[in-house]
Design brief:
The protein is of the alpha/beta class. Helix content is 39%, strand content 17%. The strands form 3 sheets. A 7-stranded parallel β-sheet has the order 3-2-1-4-5-6-10, with helices on both faces. Strands 7-9-11 form a 3-stranded mixed β-sheet. Strands 8-12 form a two-stranded parallel ribbon. The radius of gyration is 19 Å and the shape is globular. It starts with a strand and ends with a helix. The chain binds NADP nicotinamide-adenine-dinucleotide phosphate. NADP nicotinamide-adenine-dinucleotide phosphate binds at residues 8, 10-14, 32-34, 37, 51-54, 72-74, 112, 114, 147, 169, 171-172, 179, 181-182. Residues 8, 10-14, 32-34, 37, 51-54, 72-74, 112, 114, 147, 169, 171-172, 179, 181-182 line the site of NADP nicotinamide-adenine-dinucleotide phosphate.
Length: 307
């Protein structure tokens, strides 16, 4: 059994990593930033550690005695800031963090990247071998550009000898989405009753499967490799249908013109086809249906007053 440090344990993905680790009998040190978010850890039998991944305050102490480190506390760039400033901030904070982790010599670091770093292939679903050129230029979204820059740092650290396994989740749907980053897709239809859908096909994955994927990546993943953690591909129209079915409502009925979608979501690929078979084959990542993922998310949003 391993002693594991989870950075971003109060986040959507981190909360699932913590629960997946406990389910397998590992010991968990849960790192948080904002004490007001500690409710996300409920009464779980974990040690709590205050860590800031940008100033690195609390990190050396939190790393002590850890076999595995999970870095799911990623920096999210905000729109309206300069692209270069966001890239520099994401890359430099990641580099400093990886250097601090390397100094503690853990057996494994699992680095949470994103499927947004995987290059698009118009002819087939993309795999981990499809690498985006760097530097990534517009029209890639700000988020994708920053994530690619951060992943470059993790790949560099792997080449320098840090035992890093990179995981690339697609859009995560499930419980513990307190910051409602991907959950806003669910809330748009469930809470705000958005009547429209767009010509957008995405890959959604149950966050519980992503948590298990992280733990398996630590136990069995190959260092320096990327693993796509994907679930199921679906259109936004079909997705609105799942939410509507769960809530007993009418699905979104108005198709947004493409040019409007391009303004609302600049740089977002309208067709995301991903091949996550490597993680299923090598790590045994489960493939829960999106109906179940959305149902669990809605139940959680209701329980905690988001819906
Ligand atoms: N959600 C998705 O669909 C998805 C898909 C693919 C990849 N990812 C990637 O996965 C990572 C985690 O995403 P998420 O959805 O779990 O995000 P989230 O719910 O916002 O959680 C982020 C976590 O990181 C912590 N954090 C942020 N800045 C920090 C700092 N400076 N110091 C210490 N902790 C800090 C947050 O703490 P507080 O609670 O105190 O804010 C929170 O615990 C990100 O890198 C994201 O890009 C997410």
């Amino acid at each position: 059994m391993a002693m594991a440090l989870v950075l971003g344990a109060t986040g959507h993905i981190g909360a699932h990593i913590v629960r997946a680790l406990l389910a397998e009998g590992h010991t968990v040190r849960a790192a948080y930033r904002n004490p007001r978010m500690l409710w996300m850890l409920e009464e779980l039998p974990v040690e709590r550690a205050l860590v800031d991944i940008e100033t690195l305050e609390g990190l050396p102490a939190a790393l002590q005695g850890c076999d595995w480190v999970f870095h799911a506390a990623g920096y999210y760039p905000r729109r309206g800031q300069s692209r270069q400033a966001c890239v520099d901030r994401g890359a430099s904070s990641t580099r400093r963090l990886l250097e601090a982790v390397a100094a503690a010599r853990p057996q494994r670091l699992v680095f949470t990247s994103s499927a947004a770093t995987i290059a698009h292939r118009p002819d087939r679903p993309s795999t981990e071998l499809d690498v985006e050129p760097w530097p990534a230029a517009p029209p890639r979204s700000l988020y994708a550009t920053v994530k690619i820059a951060m992943e470059q740092e993790a790949l560099r650290a792997a080449r320098d000898g840090l035992p890093v396994v990179i995981v690339n989740p697609s859009i995560c749907l499930g419980e513990y989405d307190a910051h409602q980053l991907s959950g806003r897709l669910i809330l748009a239809y469930a809470k705000y009753r958005v009547p429209w859908y767009a010509d957008y096909t995405f890959n959604g994955v149950y966050t519980g499967d992503v948590g298990v994927g992280h733990v398996r990546a630590a136990a069995r993943g190959r260092c320096g490799e990327r693993y796509l953690l994907t679930g199921h591909t679906m259109t936004l129209q079909a997705f609105s249908g799942i939410v509507a079915r769960i809530l007993g409502r009418r699905p979104a009925w108005w198709k947004l013109p493409s040019w409007v979608f391009n303004i609302v979501a600049p740089g977002v690929r309208r067709m995301q086809r991903l091949d996550g078979s490597k993680a299923v084959r090598e790590l045994g990542v489960p493939q829960t249906s999106l109906d179940v993922a959305v149902e669990r998310a809605i139940r959680w949003f209701r329980q905690y007053g988001y819906l």
